[in-house]
Structure formats: C-alpha cells, structure tokens
Design goal:
By secondary structure, the protein is an alpha+beta fold. The protein is 17% helix and 49% strand. An 11-stranded antiparallel β-sheet has the order 6-5-4-3-2-1-11-10-9-8-7, covered by helices on one side. Strand 2 and strand 3 form a beta hairpin.
Length: 190
C-alpha cells in the first residue's frame, strides 16, 4: 500500500480525483480483455500518418488490424510482451519508431494501458469535452523532469471510466494522438 501511495504522490488534484486515479488503476490492472476502434495519428516530424485500427486484447496478446487508409487496410499487428509482428497475406512488415525508446504507432495502445494500470500519475483533473465532462490523467517517469522522455495524457469517460483519448509525448512534443471511437473492457472477477 505504501508503494501505491508513493506512485500516486505526484498527482495534483483533490482527494476525490486521487481516489478516482486509484480506482482507474485498480480497474485497468484487473483488465483481461478489451476491444474497440481507434483513430491513431503518428507524427514523425516531417511526415504525419493517420490510421484507423480495430483492436482486441486478450490476456497479454493484443491484435490490431488497420481498417484505414485503404492502401494499408488489412495489415494486422500481433503484440505480446516485447514482441511485435505485422502481417498482410503472409508478408511481414516493420513499423518505424517515433522515439529513441522505440515507441511506435503499434505500441501506442499497450503503452497507454500500461500507463493507466502501472504509471506514475503526475497530474489529474476534470475537463469539458463538448457537452460532457471527462477525466484527464497525465503520466510520466517519476525520475525524469517534466517534458522529458516519453509521457502520456489519457482522458476517461465520466460514466464508466472507459478510455476516450490518449496522447503520447516525446520530450514535450506530441508524437501520437489516439482517439478511441469504441471501447469495451472486461476484468477478472475478484
């Protein structure tokens, strides 16, 4: 319990907000399955790519299938632990990293889920998104200075705590924007 308090100690926000961060951490730590659709924008500096993917996570195996743009639709990525494989009609492909530590569009969703379930929450609070209130949590390495290394901001649905959006930053610059247009999850029974 003491370690958990230390992990949350950087989060600025009221006690209710800190309780919500703790609740989200517990819920996503127990996650055994999730599925949905995400619109991912990857910014390589000189080039920006937009993808739409359908994804499913079962245990530690994540499968992503690109549905747009049409030129690359059907490419499927299988992510398990540190291993990533892309395939299309038996042809293997490799995506390029966006950061020095290897963050790529394929690893964006696993990275976001890992932040929520295990990450150091730096700040949190409520924001307006259109007509709805959403909860935002910022994650970073507790040993690093703000705006250095890889960091994440994640927005959650007010009703169910479902992921709505995630932004990944490298040294203060957004490299990935991930909008979840559909998201469902299941956790292990306790």
């Amino acid at each position: 319990m003491m370690a958990l308090c230390l992990l949350l100690s950087g989060c600025t926000g009221g006690s209710e907000d800190l309780d919500l961060v703790q609740s989200l951490r517990e819920e996503y730590s127990a996650l055994t399955e999730c599925a949905g659709t995400a619109e991912i924008t990857a910014d390589y500096g000189q080039r920006v790519y937009d993808y739409t993917v359908e994804f499913s996570l079962q245990g530690e195996k994540l499968t992503l299938t690109i549905t747009a743009p049409e030129e690359v639709a059907g490419i499927t990525a299988h992510v398990s632990g540190e291993e990533t494989a892309l395939s299309f009609d038996g042809v293997m492909l490799e995506t390029g990293p966006l950061t020095d530590d290897g963050l790529s569009p394929v690893s964006a969703l696993p990275f976001l889920l890992r932040c929520v379930s295990q990450g150091f929450s730096d700040s949190c609070g409520w924001e307006e998104d259109g007509e709805a209130a959403v909860f935002r949590v910022d994650y970073r390495d507790p040993e690093a200075e703000p705006d250095t290394g890889t960091q994440a901001s994640v927005w959650f649905d007010q009703e169910e705590g479902a992921l709505l959006r995630g932004e990944l930053y490298s040294d203060g610059h957004r490299v990935i924007l991930c909008r979840l247009t559909e998201f469902s999850m299941a956790a292990e029974e306790t």
